[in-house]
Structure formats: structure tokens, C-alpha cells
Design goal:
48% helix; globular; 19 helices; 491 residues; alpha/beta; 5-stranded parallel β-sheet; homodimer
Chain lengths: 491, 491
């Protein structure tokens, strides 16, 4: 889920210097408004991997804000006083009062995350802790608190570099190295962070990931994220407004996972045909194996218009026994479906064990077309991410292998394909006015896809981004991914 | 929590015949309105102990409502079709469409409850299942469904009687006896029911317990409960309104746990003094024991005005080392406390391990005086029950023994005490205009106390109702309860 946080998000000095004074003034104005009104407390929770610059970022907040109404509480090992009381007592004691901003460092997430990363807490117990945290934060939000949770993220390689540099410095000993969030545990800590984001990111207490490889980008993004939440709440009416940002990863530079794709991949025809045959044989054998009866396959095909979903699906079905697969083209819901929760029409089409359900577009319409076209409310598509994660977890629990593809092409390539379709009579049915209209919203869709992948690429149902500029390359990648996922499931 | 459901709730024939035609017409009107508008689906979930008359109650609904827009789905062992799909598939498939009422019998609660009762699921795993159910129901409610969950309850003795009678009948074999909800598992099933009610009773999908010992009372109460939910929702604006009823136990006869108290208990003076000395010695020894350092004691005193809280507290503190207890009289919150979540002022006063915190009135003010006087909103005191259960569970987790007393006197006795206070100069400070005003709201307070005990008497922090008409009897019962709870905790 955090992949796009590790993209090279960078802010140059001029851009920073142009933005920083404005941000600073706006933050201060918002804070003074809060102090004057005393209508709620803002809780900013700081977490993330080691060496991501959490301490520096907090320093920056002290520079920007009026420090008299800003308090930081940091927690490490409990004191004697604290040990003599229930675990949450120390956090309760220090809750910021209305009208102030409280920064919580080493929060109520720390103990469970640490224990989970170090293997002292199993999945079930970890999940239970997260549910208890959810209840706590729901209560705080119900009582009026604004809660914002920031995860500072850097890639493992960057972290390694920083630690090395740090050790060479004279003041190194002052740096508190968390035993669980260092280089050795980068993967596990990131995994724990992803789980946390999935389970405890609520509309009232969202997690936002701050890409932290570049100091200027980190600080400005953090500041803007806090500002947006404060302003939204201060502008709201009496009630408690959701503070959820649509994006899990705060990236004012609008870089998404799609930016990391190399669309120049291609495969020559002869090689393609040989590989295609091999992969189709492999898939045929796998789906015919007796053990396949114990599992099943859910294939999700999403992608830009004209990215080649249909062609890829055909190459898959050629390898399958027609009695054992179904293709579900997903268009507008029927009357009957509209009288049900939106996931109902997918539940009713789930494959039995031992069979393959192929969805040509899917439940992700909720966070793509429905979001972009305004067919559902913001609250609806925001909650859809977790609902979908929950749905797919249930599929995986039942033994189904969930494989999700996003077929990506460039805007230019799409234009070429549209034009080609318009020219060839038997392909004209494939191109409609709507396709041209969607094309005008390219940027909005791109953002929606980025958010979708960030929020719904989970360990058990990961997204596979497919570079589809070259159709042959795309089809082979699709087939290969399916084979590998089945093999992993059967192992 | 379900104690008051087992009270003798009875409805005589005349009263039933007077009410039934009105209820029936109103139910039908509401249903036709729903059918016409097709704006949401109503899901009525039916659960409870065996032989409580669930089937008969559903029959009654078919008699009252238009059966063309009413569907019942019953689930037992999964079919082959169902086993080949994720566990929730069968419930999804059968969801009632907008405009209809769906009765769900043997619902998504069945498998986890059964497994838990039979000891095949441990606490942690059971809790996880309940959280998954919460997510499912939240999604349904967010998608517009009206969800109402009814638990049909009868006492174990009544159940035993019914089963015996049933076995003598020729058609007995048609009765499906659930292996986990019969007489042998009555306690465990009730315990599971209580947990479910605590964990999954949300404003949007509340549990309501239907006292089912009397058929007429059962049917009419069920009908009225369903009607109230339907009407509230149909009258609401576009948005989804909470359907929560304030009461966990549906009791139109307004009988509460307080009705089961025998206020004639009393103790003669000589016997009282002997017993008092013994119990105080026992408490002194217990609270002085080295093992007591590992636990701690939270005493909550609530009760009618002039019920003798102060006197009871004094008899407790006489037995304690003054360095190891604190009395916290709870009145209106300070400015500082008002700038925090309402539980904050109690968290800050929690006793350390090895000590005793005595609360003369407590966090229960939220669901008593604040509810009755309208100092907080309905939504606030409704969510307070679960917040308080959560709070007390954390205290218990940390080793604290939570003992909660409700000191009950009759309205006449209160008047006598008020008058006595008004006459004795050094007791005049104890009686204020407010006391007289509260007295006028006797009925409202009584209902609030009943709801409070039903909703917050948990296995780890049960309420002890104290018959306080005789002060000596009350003081002894308080001391004895404290000693027994400490002894149980130290075992």
C-alpha cells in the first residue's frame, strides 16, 4: 500500500521558499482561530519508520505555530506511576484540552506495533488491539476531537543510508533508535503500518502517509495536510466533520504509482507466440489440477479505456475449460441490483470453488467512475476502500485467489487506438462518445487510480500494474501473474 | 445484562385484545408505506435461546403483515452450493431488496455463537468474528438498510418446563432443537447473547431483548418494537436515522430490575454491629495483604438521593488505611474537565495498584442525571453505555476490581428521610431544592437506572443492587460484596 510513498517526491528550494511563508501564515491563522474558539482539540499523531525525520518535522511545527498552544507528548517505556495504572492511563492524562494542538509521539499504536513486528503478538491479538484503538479514537472523535495520524515513510535503502550517516555524527547517541523500526525491521514495520492504515483509518481519524525522503517535501506536505484538516473543521458547522483526505499518501506533486511504470516494455512477435503458448499450457494444467478444486480464481480487469482488457481476457480464457469460467462484463446496475447494497451484484456472481470468475471491470467502479463522475457521494466512495478490502479478505479467507490488474497505457497511445477503432468498421462499436468524454478527465482518473492502488493493494489481494502500451507484453504479464499466484496458493 | 428480561412480564387477554388491532393496522400502514417508497430494506434478525417462541412470533408477523413483501430466510447447515463459496455468500444472496422486510433466522451470528458456546472458539477469535459482523452491518446500514436485531429470552427454568411439555407432544420431532441453545447451554448462550449485545449493538443495528415467557407480551412487544423502528425511519429525512431504542430490554410494562428487589430486608441492631465488625476486619485484612498490591479497587456508589451512600462509604473507609484510599465526590465538572472528553475526569482519578478509589457518584451520571435532565444529547448517552463498558473492561484488564452499587429505596422512604433531614439542623445541608426536583422525576430516573443496569452489568464489572430501605442491611451487603469480590480476584 505504501509503494507510492517511496517514489521520488522532491521539492526544490525555490518552490519551497515560495510556498512556506504562505503555509506558515495560514497555519498560524488557523491555530489562533482554534485557540480563540476553544471548540475542539486537535490531536496530531506522529508515527513511521526510523530515521524518516519525525523529530525534525515536529521542530518545524514549533517554528511555524504558536508554541504556547502546542504540546508534544512522547512516550517510551512506562514509568512506575504509569505501570501502576491501566495501559491507556498515560494517554488519557495527557489529552490536549479544547483549543490546543497536541502532538503525540510514540502513541497508543507503539506497543502493539512493536510487539507485532518483533513477533510477540500474533495476527489475531494484533487485530484485537487495533479494534480497541478504533473504539478509543471513535470515542475521542465523538467527543469532538480532531484526529490526524501521520505516518512518515522512507524506503529501506534510504533508511540504511541515513543510519550510516547518523552513526558517523558526534551527537548520534541522542538519536533514539526504536528497536523495531530500524533497517532490519523495515519490511515488517511497513507491513504493520499498512495493516494499521487499513484497519484504523476512519473518516474521523484518518491515516495520511507523508513521503519523507526529501526534507522540504516532507515538511511542506505535513504542514499542508495539517492545515487542510484544521481549516475544514474550523469552516464546518457545529457538528463533527469527517477529516478524511481522499488520498492515503499525501502527495501534492500528484505523483502516483502510475508514474513508476515503464511503458516502453515490448515483446517481439515470435517470442510472444512461443511464450503465450507456454503460459497458456501452464495455466491449463494448473486450472485442471485436482487441487484447484479446493481453491478458485477471481480475476479483476481494470484499466484505461482501450488498454486491451478484452484481448487479455481472451488469452486467459483460451487456456480454460469453458465449463469452469464465467466472464462478467460490468456495466450499469440493473433495477434489481440498485435495490441492494452496491457489492451485492458482485457477491451474487462469485465463482464456486474450482472455477474462475472473470470481472471485466468490477467493484472498483465505485472508487473510479462513480467517484470521478460524482455518481456517489464522497462519503460513499471514501468508505468503499475499507469495504472492498473487507470483501476481498473474505474471498481470500474462503480460499479464492484474488488477482487484480490495472492495464495502463499513455494518453497518446489511447488516442491512436481510439482513432484506429473509429476507422475499422468492425471495431467501431467499441468506441463511444463516452470514451471521448472520459478521456477529458484523464487527470482525475489518474488520481483516482493512484488512490485506489494505495488503499486497496493488500498482502492477500495485491494489485498488479500492467504496462499495456505493448499489447503482447501486457498479455504475457497477465498470464504469468495468474500462474504464479495460483502456484503460490497451491503451495 | 438480561436479568430484567426474565422478570414476570405478562400481558392479560383483555389488554392484548385492546392493543392488537391498533398495532396490526399501524404495522400494515408502515409496511405499505415502505413498499410504496422502496427507499430502503428492513432486516429483522431473530435470535435467542431455544423454546422462546421465535417461530410462533414469526408466524404472528405473517398474520399481521402483507406476506407478499415479507420474506423469511432460515439457515442451518450450509448446502453444497454454499460450502463452495465464502461464508457470507448465502446471507448476501438473500438480502431483502429495498421496499421489503426480510426476516433472518439463524443469521450470521449463529455459527460464531454456537462455536463459542460449545467451546470451539476462544474469546479472542469470538471477538474477532463479532468485529467482522460489525463491519458487515455498518456497511448494510451505510447502504441504507434498517437493521433491527431481536433476542428472544426466557429463563432457564421456564425453558426446562417448555422442553418437557414439547417432548410429550406428537409433533415434537418437527421442533428444531439447536444443540447450543437448549437447557444445558442456557447460561452459556445467555452469556454469548450478552457479549453480542455489548459488542454489536450499534445505533444503526441495535439489539433489543424481547422477554418471551408470556406469549401475548412477547408478540405485542416484538410488534411494537418493529413498528417503532419502521415509523422512526419512515418519518426521518433523507439520511439514515439511528434506530436505537434507549432500552436494551423491550418492556412496555416498564418493569425493570428494580422491581425484583425486596425492600423489606432488615437487620437488627445487635446482629448488625457484630456482623459489621467482622466484615470490616475481613476487609482490613484483605486490603492489607501483600497480594492486594497487585490489584486495586474501584468502588462506585450510585443510588437514589438519601439512599445512604455516604453512610455506606464511611463504613467501608473505616476498615481501610487512610494512605491507601481516596474518596471522589462527583459533582459538576470543572472548566478544565469540560475541555476534555467526559471520561477524562475519571481517568485522572483512577487509583494506583494496591489502593482504593471510591467514587461517590461516578461516570454513570452520563446515563442518569445527564440523560434525564437533558444535559447531553440522546446520541451521547446512547453511545456512553458501550464507552463505559469499554472503560471498565480496561480497568479490569489492568487488575483493578470494579464494584458498582446501586442503593435503592422506595419513594415513601425517601420522603421520610428528606423530611427528617429538613428537621435536624446539622443534616439540613444534605437536602436541597434540587433533591426535591429530582424526586418529581422518580419515574424517569427509575427507567434510566433499569437501562443502565441492563446495559452495563457485565461479567467483569457487574452491578450489585442494594436494598437500602434498611440502612444496616445495606451497609452489610456493601461490605460483604466488596470482600467477596476481592477474594475472588485474589484466587
Amino acid at each position: 500500500m505504501f509503494e507510492s510513498a517511496a517514489l521520488p517526491h522532491v521539492l526544490d528550494k525555490e518552490a519551497y521558499q515560495a510556498e512556506e511563508p504562505k503555509l506558515r501564515q495560514a497555519l498560524l491563522d488557523a491555530q489562533l482561530d482554534l485557540v480563540g474558539r476553544k471548540s475542539f482539540a486537535a490531536i496530531v499523531l506522529i508515527a513511521g519508520v526510523d530515521c524518516a525525520g519525525k523529530g525534525e518535522a515536529i521542530q518545524k511545527l514549533y517554528e511555524w505555530l504558536d508554541p504556547r498552544h502546542l504540546h508534544t507528548r512522547a512516550y517510551s517505556e512506562p514509568t512506575d506511576e504509569e505501570r501502576a495504572r491501566p495501559r491507556m492511563w498515560r494517554y488519557w492524562r495527557d489529552l490536549p484540552p479544547d483549543g490546543t494542538i497536541g502532538i503525540v509521539f510514540g502513541s497508543w499504536y507503539n506497543d502493539p506495533v512493536k510487539a507485532f513486528v518483533l513477533g510477540k503478538l500474533d495476527e489475531l491479538a494484533f487485530e484485537r488491539e487495533l479494534e480497541a484503538i478504533n473504539r478509543f479514537e471513535t470515542m475521542l472523535a465523538d467527543e469532538g476531537a480532531l484526529i490526524l495520524k501521520l505516518w512518515f515513510h522512507i524506503a529501506q535503502a534510504e533508511q540504511k543510508k541515513r543510519l550510516k550517516k547518523l552513526k558517523a555524527k558526534p551527537g548520534a547517541s541522542r538519536h533514539v533508535l526504536e528497536e523495531w523500526s530500524g533497517v532490519d525491521h523495515h519490511m515488517a514495520a511497513t507491513g504493520a503500518g499498512e495493516r494499521i492504515a487499513q484497519r484504523t483509518s476512519t473518516p474521523y481519524a484518518p491515516w495520511v502517509v507523508i513521503p519523507s525522503a526529501d526534507d522540504r517535501f516532507r515538511d511542506l506536505t505535513m504542514g499542508q495536510t495539517i492545515l487542510a484538516s484544521l481549516e475544514k473543521r474550523l469552516a464546518g458547522t457545529a457538528g463533527v466533520e469527517p477529516v478524511a483526505a481522499p488520498a492515503l499518501i499525501a502527495a501534492p506533486d500528484r505523483k502516483t504509482v502510475l508514474d513508476a511504470l515503464d511503458l516502453t516494455h515490448s515483446v517481439a512477435k515470435a517470442k510472444y507466440e512461443k511464450r503465450l503458448g507456454e503460459l497458456q499450457d501452464r495455466l491449463a494444467v494448473l486450472s485442471d489440477a485436482p487441487e484447484f478444486r479446493e481453491i478458485g480464481l477471481v480475476l479483476v480487469f481494470e484499466g484505461n479505456d482501450a488498454a486491451g482488457k478484452g484481448g487479455s481476457i481472451r488469452r486467459v480464457t483460451q487456456a480454460l475449460d469453458p465449463r469452469r469460467f464465467d466472464i462478467h462484463p460490468v456495466a450499469a446496475p440493473s433495477d434489481e441490483e440498485r435495490a441492494q447494497p452496491y457489492l451485492w451484484r458482485f457477491w451474487r456472481r462469485l465463482p464456486r470453488k474450482g472455477t474462475v470468475g472473470i470481472f471485466d471491470r468490477s467493484w472498483y467502479g465505485r472508487v473510479l467512475v462513480e467517484r470521478v463522475e460524482g455518481y456517489c457521494t464522497e462519503a460513499e466512495w471514501l468508505r468503499a476502500y475499507n469495504e472492498i478490502n473487507d470483501f476481498e479478505a473474505q474471498l481470500a479467507d474462503s480460499g479464492l485467489v484474488v488477482v487484480k490488474f490495472w492495464l495502463a497505457i499513455s494518453q497518446d497511445e489511447q488516442l491512436r487506438r481510439f482513432q484506429a477503432r473509429a476507422e475499422i468498421p468492425f471495431k467501431q462499436f467499441k468506441i463511444t462518445d463516452e470514451d471521448w468524454r472520459n478521456r477529458e478527465k484523464w487527470g482525475l482518473y489518474r488520481q483516482a487510480v493512484g488512490d485506489m492502488v494505495d488503499r486497496t493493494s493488500t498482502a492477500r489481494a495485491p494489485w498488479t500494474l500492467v504496462e499495456a502500451e505493448d499489447k503482447r507484453y501486457a498479455r504475457l504479464k497477465v498470464l504469468k501473474t495468474i500462474c504464479e499466484r495460483i502456484e503460490a496458493a497451491l503451495r
